[in-house]
Protein 1
Amino acid sequence: MVAPQKEKEFKVIGTRPIRPDGTDKVTGRAPYGADIHLTGMLHGKVKRSPHAHALIKRIDATRALALEGVRAVITRADFPEVASGATSDEEGPVTPLPFLMDRVMASKKALFRGHAVAAVCATDPHIAEDALDLIEVDYEVLPAVVDVREAMLDVAPILHDDLRTREVSPLATARGDKPTNIAAHRQLSRGDVEQGFAEADVVVEREFQTSRYHQGYIEPQNATALWNKDGHLTLWASTQGLFGVRNSVASLLQLPVSQITVKEMEIGGGFGGKLGVYLEPLAALLARKSGRPVKLTMSREEVFEATGPTSATYSRVKIGAKKDGRIVAADAYLAYEAGAYPGSPLGGGMNGVFAPYDIANQRIEGYDVVVNLSKTAAYRAPGTPAGMLPTEAVINELAERLGMDPMELRLKNAVAEGGERANGQRFRRIGNREVMEAVRDHPHYRSELQGENRGRGVAMGFWGNGGGESSSSASINADGTVSLVLGSVDIGGTRASLAMQLAETLGLPGEAVLPRIVDTDSVGFTANTGGSRTTFAGGWAAYDLGLAIRAKLVERAAKIWECDVAAVTYADDGVIHGPKDGEGTPRRFSFKDLAARLPRSGGTIEVGVNVTPSGAGPAFAAHLVDLEVDPDTGKVTILRYTAIQDVGKAIHPSYVEGQIHGGVAQGIGMALSEEYYLDASGRQLNASFLDYRMPTALDLPMIETVLVEVPNPGHPYGVRGVGEVPIVPPLAAIQTAIYNAIGVRFTKLPITPRVVLDELLKDEA
Amino acid sequence: MVAPQKEKEFKVIGTRPIRPDGTDKVTGRAPYGADIHLTGMLHGKVKRSPHAHALIKRIDATRALALEGVRAVITRADFPEVASGATSDEEGPVTPLPFLMDRVMASKKALFRGHAVAAVCATDPHIAEDALDLIEVDYEVLPAVVDVREAMLDVAPILHDDLRTREVSPLATARGDKPTNIAAHRQLSRGDVEQGFAEADVVVEREFQTSRYHQGYIEPQNATALWNKDGHLTLWASTQGLFGVRNSVASLLQLPVSQITVKEMEIGGGFGGKLGVYLEPLAALLARKSGRPVKLTMSREEVFEATGPTSATYSRVKIGAKKDGRIVAADAYLAYEAGAYPGSPLGGGMNGVFAPYDIANQRIEGYDVVVNLSKTAAYRAPGTPAGMLPTEAVINELAERLGMDPMELRLKNAVAEGGERANGQRFRRIGNREVMEAVRDHPHYRSELQGENRGRGVAMGFWGNGGGESSSSASINADGTVSLVLGSVDIGGTRASLAMQLAETLGLPGEAVLPRIVDTDSVGFTANTGGSRTTFAGGWAAYDLGLAIRAKLVERAAKIWECDVAAVTYADDGVIHGPKDGEGTPRRFSFKDLAARLPRSGGTIEVGVNVTPSGAGPAFAAHLVDLEVDPDTGKVTILRYTAIQDVGKAIHPSYVEGQIHGGVAQGIGMALSEEYYLDASGRQLNASFLDYRMPTALDLPMIETVLVEVPNPGHPYGVRGVGEVPIVPPLAAIQTAIYNAIGVRFTKLPITPRVVLDELLKDEA
């Protein structure tokens, strides 16, 4: 269902053409990393630390190298030396390069269980695996800390002796020279929070905890490297960014970027977890050392323990309102574990925590904390599900305390265009209010939920969306189609959404534009597919290509008609109009006719563009859930689920709906079933898909989607990123619905059957 | 050795950087068609006619299809129906589409031995081969004709009942309705030939014959097709033109071009023989019919019998001169067999025959004749070696008759800028005279040849060179390199020569531009690599890309410096200069500095261009050979060989020298050893490299090259094609040298040891 919004009429945008990559994916022809086989290729395996925190005193590969079939062993000593102050900006904020290297392979200390300490390659994967046991590593085991709040204590084991808290304005005090696990302390504020609470009639304060959650992509990380005899490195990997891998590996191995080619591959899921590199530099170094191509693939256990899930968090939110529902103060405390190296998605939490509301007095305090677990990575709306859980749960409780409808309370406080945020920025046109109204008016919301142990919950979600750099080229084929060259990995419709925007610009059918993703040698730099930037920024590139092609076709028509360029126009339906001919008939070319004329009138048209657009449009969503709690087993069954979202303009609505379905499913997993079972030593006890319980199709109802379309004024077709925000609302919506079902306000997620049952049994006790 | 010519100073052009594809080729990593293996791939074989001329009465594949492992059999009935009048312009002049289809697979008649009549695919190549014998074909054998002059006779067997002679102006008479094997009769003339001969003091007339010669590329034709379930066809082939294959297969299978992707592959030699398609449409149809990818590879015997070598020819040239050496009349008769379908390289012969000379009265008559042999194809300066052989031999004889030095005679008649040709065109700046003078002044020419049975010969060569369409894109990497995207197959330095021209334009080192050949989806239409067009036209594209990048970098620098664009200049050394800063220091960026700034100042630069340049510059060459004839065996040994050529401007002299070496070697093969031994039934008796005798390194001396550089005024760097013309002069130079050695004027090439010996024994008899 698409909620009607008045807007420009489109011919291609908003339709649902066949997916360009559909056939290849359903028939199994689409190439993934596992499909790569090179002549003479070796297989690599990674030796990983069995300890969450340990000094590495000695690594001896002698016995491993003596095993027949083993060709090379690498350790951190095989990485280039870099100055301790060297930095890299490949993955967001400037990060010390030694940290990035350590994350890929431990140097002096292993900082988490599963931390790579060495890698080996051999003529077959079984020999490589056998060789792992022959690599001798002497450890001195150190005490470990894996909980974010424990890690913040003064008595906590320290991961990095040289880590000092980075204070982010407006915090004033410095933390001195004492080693700490608190990598950053940030604060945002607006107005006078104490004064605000003093004015409040009702105040609700709650604290929450969330687990580490893994993205759970189906395809494990893998990498194949060919280090050519001329020094050129070619990589095949499962990644969200071909150029991201190129930049990261260049930085880690201190190579010029053009010495590396990253080949285009399909990706079996990423959700943010495939923005960084793990195996790629190891494959490269093994290839260089062995003189042969080398392939590495992670097991699922390695994926869970050694790649980056999102942070476990501790949060506390306090909101005060007047009796009429006007929120006058809000205070948030967010502590995010980053894993073994600084850089949790705390920013996403802080940006999202109060985003839907116009609150004059607010303060948001955040901590980025290292613990002895794998470094966290981005995961769909990074940091925001945990950041908005407390707000949305507290708002729902506040509505109850005020005796107000929860959506009326939200609408009363909804931020709109021009609204100022805690970070000082002001919103441009957004669909926050439209989404809230769509919930309020939706039949699901207006329906009555009947039955015992059943409850309903609603919650909002926010994600700012991204921009960033995209390059692209295009050329016209003589049959009237257009080849579109992309540098973006397709993770959920990139090919379709960009091709459709070029087709729209040219006035062509969607199928007339043929998208093609190429490697890093064949198109200009293009940023990672992530942050919900690609349909937006890549769409700008497609639009600019379209304008360039239109201009060149106008020139060509004028040349053919021997008339002035100014007398030729390109109409939005793809027809090129010229002046009347000698007999008074207006001259015209369809795009197809003119395309057929190009070869014999000067050649085809080839254009290239690069864009780095600002103007990414934030996305708001509201989810509504009905559920039932089984009092005998504690199992929660979702009965009905409605996801309403401002999608700006849905380019290909099926993909948008798919993104929403996927986000909801993952959010439900966070709310109800997914978690890292860690023992005190930092070992994950459920590092398999059997035990790490992601929702399956059988666990979920049909998820109804409502696409609200409030065009983003920063994009020619109103595009907003749509992929991130749907993972945000499920946590609070479900937490509230469970409360409404059984009267228990759970504050630690996931709310698994065991947790529910413990609580219900406690009541009985 | 490079003959000095005054010219612009270049930094990259004229140097010899490491070849971009060198490492891959010497280590065996470069991918060729034989390396392609697809999941589920079948292997195909072609059933070929054992008769040179036969009606196909019935094809029954029942038994073949019953063989275990056989998946599909195709015949001509699997091709789409097309109207008899349908044409295709994919390969030069407009050609009836049914002819093109028949050439790939016979319809009603097999027209040559080796003509494909059916094809089969099976799970392994041996089963496919076994299946060939189980395909039953009933033939009615017809009389065949394989000699060009016999085929022109009224009594000759007729290949095509509906073929009528196409008369090309200024011939007037039509040939009526009688079937014929003469597909075309063309004439060029200038002045009054009869009057000219009447004025001549000396007239020499000679007739010549040349054999079919095969290009002899090392890599046989191969093709692999994946007909995807969505109808998209992907092809891997050994070809000189990715887009050429796309267009040809689209035409033959009546598909839109964008439904076909042709992947970039290396090529193991082509020399013109890989411009057309043979196996590609068969692989495609077998793939469609079997539902599986299919690969086909030719044996060497198939390459010889079923692909296109160049035409066997009969020619007659008569030249008249005054006593002072001034040529006053010239008459040429050229008859070229085209193989089974019209379209010999007669045009190349007619264009070349008198090209180096300014002859007021001349006539060139030519015949294109079908015979029961495989359709001829382009072969290095197509048609010109046979076309210039009679002229150059006769000129040498004329010099002898006049008592003149053969180069003085040539210089006296040399055509120069503004000179009018028989086709009415006038030459722009050419290096004809410079080449002749370089021969005259060369130490080899001025040396004395001593010894018995030794002789020296000299001859000129001409080739017009080509232009045509090229698309290309480029982007800047942050490390200061430039990625250059090409649609041209690299057959002898394309990557290097185009990258160097872009580097020159940008003022960068040659290694800073990284060329990349991509498939037909990833760049705009680019014509075949052939005709010596690629360094010329692709160079124009590289130059235009360079200008576009310069303009964009100037804009970017102005943006960074916050100054007017007009205040910024891009110097030829790659330094961008701006106005002085506040302290009076001139602002400047090296290319590398600015490249590093691009990501954070608006993104990289991506540009695309398409060119179809006119202005291809003709090439002239003169070769000088010393040889010795062994009177006991008839074997001719080349003692010394000097090739002098106007190369316009040698972009990468090593590649230019390589092209000349290769052309000379092939020309020597034509002169001395290569030929098709055909029996009367049209069977080739020497269809293997053991029996088809190409010169090897052991047969050849070091070939000295002299690069004369007369820049082509139609190109920014003066480029002329260099690859074709060196195959032209060896024939006449060697024929003359043998005459000078033993006093016999051979008129039938090759002049093999047997032929020489027969002649020497005849003298003794």
Protein 2
Amino acid sequence: MRVLLLNNRLKPHTVHMAEQMETKLKGMGAQVFIDNGVQKPGPVSIDLLIVLGGDGTIIRAAREYAQSGVPVLGVNMGRVGFLSNIASNQLEEKLERLLAGDYSIDERMVMEVEVCDGDRPIMTVGGLNEVVFRSTAPRIIELMLYVKERSQGVYRGDGLIVATPTGSTAYSLSAGGPIVDPSLQAFIVTPIASSITHRRPLVIGAQHPLVIKPQDAREAVICVDGQVHMEFEPEYSVRIKRAANPLRMVNLTGALLFDNLEGRLRRNEIQ
Amino acid sequence: MRVLLLNNRLKPHTVHMAEQMETKLKGMGAQVFIDNGVQKPGPVSIDLLIVLGGDGTIIRAAREYAQSGVPVLGVNMGRVGFLSNIASNQLEEKLERLLAGDYSIDERMVMEVEVCDGDRPIMTVGGLNEVVFRSTAPRIIELMLYVKERSQGVYRGDGLIVATPTGSTAYSLSAGGPIVDPSLQAFIVTPIASSITHRRPLVIGAQHPLVIKPQDAREAVICVDGQVHMEFEPEYSVRIKRAANPLRMVNLTGALLFDNLEGRLRRNEIQ
Amino acid sequence: MRVLLLNNRLKPHTVHMAEQMETKLKGMGAQVFIDNGVQKPGPVSIDLLIVLGGDGTIIRAAREYAQSGVPVLGVNMGRVGFLSNIASNQLEEKLERLLAGDYSIDERMVMEVEVCDGDRPIMTVGGLNEVVFRSTAPRIIELMLYVKERSQGVYRGDGLIVATPTGSTAYSLSAGGPIVDPSLQAFIVTPIASSITHRRPLVIGAQHPLVIKPQDAREAVICVDGQVHMEFEPEYSVRIKRAANPLRMVNLTGALLFDNLEGRLRRNEIQ
Amino acid sequence: MRVLLLNNRLKPHTVHMAEQMETKLKGMGAQVFIDNGVQKPGPVSIDLLIVLGGDGTIIRAAREYAQSGVPVLGVNMGRVGFLSNIASNQLEEKLERLLAGDYSIDERMVMEVEVCDGDRPIMTVGGLNEVVFRSTAPRIIELMLYVKERSQGVYRGDGLIVATPTGSTAYSLSAGGPIVDPSLQAFIVTPIASSITHRRPLVIGAQHPLVIKPQDAREAVICVDGQVHMEFEPEYSVRIKRAANPLRMVNLTGALLFDNLEGRLRRNEIQ
């Protein structure tokens, strides 16, 4: 059994936790590797990934490890997250079940975002929550949305969000999008402050790749999961498709992905 | 080849059209039956259903014939509809292709709405667009939503809509719901004038049946597709699941179901 | 000093409270009258109105007494209200200040709703929160809005709310309207589930009377403050204007009307 | 009679129009001055300001001349604007009425935006539409709103708009704000993509100055009327109050400011 512990080296309590867990797991006979964001294990195949950190750390883990198909356990190290499955003080008592593989798996769709300059791909990156196209100054930009190579019309406003169901409770929700069941294979297209006031959020089956092209979009940016930023040049186009593999999240409680959503949203707002 | 023509006997131009088409189709060697809403054919198996009328007539047809799996062609007899595939003046030139089966099929998810008084089922009805739970007087009612037998919390307000993707462009849209791709198997749960202002539209995978129960809902009604109404008594509960078979709609143009949605919405609003 | 105590005879604790306060106030030299909803004082002029009850009781008091200009103190007898100024357990310690007139006054705009059958007025009633026009069954109705005798176009959907600033935190908020400062003299026009999706809430200066006429509105109702209901017949029209006098509410704390609005909204939703 | 013609030197047709009008007006006995954005008349008192250009040019004119109280006529030189009163081809026939003062005046509230670094004012600028506080990257910022020195709580999200009634049909509308009658003296506070999903637009009487302070707002900008931009540093605070004088707009048609709003919005969206 090979276990990879992923932590955030800038947050000392996650470093400390990783050390503690390493000792425990080794004592239970597991092989342990650590990825602290800088030091990474070599190209070794692993059986379980334990992420010590908030949603941001899990998102980073998804980008790097989701396509390998390894089961991922998110351990909540601070404020309540949407992606973590258990609290840090519960981890120790679950280690045996984890090593025995005694859990179910929730699959979360991942998106693959490919930015092209004309026809030439210049970046491909995975996203767990969303890709955002937005003006930098508070100025109207115009974007075209294509589904199956057919234009769905222009979006005028601050920009556009294309989210996964997992991302539907993040930025897309703030911009007025619906909450979408993670069991659905879908993209949520949510305009940000659209000047075409009857433009509405769309939920599109993820079997269709989407393409976004700027029509009039000087000084705009592309941002994936709040972590990867790049300028959105007028000659760029962005192709968004479902990644080949979903993120496979460890579920120890049997909870529905939907459970207590309202409660999480409210706590999130009050905090 | 057995063709059923369905029209609305209260709209003379659909009666007239049915007579014309009957003659044509017979001349082409088809057997023709007519359902005008009162006179109905006996229990005969048919190969094609042609609906002459607006969205309301197609919705009625779906309720009666969708589960038989027969392909349905909606012929638009008046203002532009969301469900009709061709205009009435285009029908004649398409008859040959129709009889030859030269078309593709778009599947539209249908819902089955079961109303129970305690444990006893008292009505089961199919729905193509939505089921609505609403107060009659402008008064707050409280409804509970259950997914997989777990409560998703209370909805306070004028009521609640549970829509199919097809219905996402109808009443649910007016109440603030997203537009959902008909290729998705999903329910859209949209609150109407919710007094809990952060209650948001949900899109839930249709593999989960939903249950709605009144918590405090005197003087409320249940309404399916704007056509079937009944009072919603405090001891009722309503179970909503995906019907066994989708509505199979004839697609002669190869158009994406999404095509020109914006245009249809706008025309609809201006008319 | 003549004080009128208004309570809700159906809520025993308000009856009890009224008796206690009557004794106290008499002991302090005041003349005391009681209105319990059925027994009412004769046509006597009063100097202070103390309302023992929730927002509903204060709304009823406003309808009956606002135009007399008497200062009104709302005493919160249960869950937190938007209109009450003090909690019931604080009343006793404030009696001296009340009798001495040691308080400031917050003015709240009141609306006058006049329903006409053709040209003939058939009902005139005051409203503190809102007048609602809504379909009874979940069916689209069409209403015309006129400002200064000019049409502002048709509203298609479940109906329309015309609210005062005080009412902007009640039903209008649930339907998507803004929160409006009670110091403004304005009507808030908020569509309910509008099928014309770009119809937006309007805030109109209250110097303009508004007129609402049904265009296609069978089976609709008019409802003032959730308390006065009548059917809305196709030949009716409703004229809404600002009442001659505002409701004059006693303010003992110097609090801004806006203070802690968010907190009140949240408590309201959680309760 | 002294008339100032204001045009946009970068738009040749407005330059040409200014020259034509200058000749006409001189022939009618008026003294004429020209402000083309670079060349400006000296400090001369004028009786009428004619703005040749779109809403952007009128907004610039308001910033420079509103406080002088001079009547302003907006002449629409291109696409339909919200602020222009007549089309360019109608101007010539109206010159006589203009010189005779045969028109009414619509007053539009103007805001004064004062940016302070700690206690030290570093910029004061007039605004006709709105002041926007927004993140540059798509990242959450936190802003505090104060009314009468009392906190109204934190706004988390992309940012915040404080608009005048005139600006309520511009950016604020896109972000979900209501349409507000220009006759009202009010500020409209509209959150942009608020992560606190029950944060709602507020309409606040303009007798209260508002103060906005960043709580956590690195990399944010302040933008007035889409024309004046500056970085919003963590130690800044912004005070927004009603300007001493409104913009006085010439009304030649007697039209209500509200007239045909829907039509203008729709044209704007389609264009």
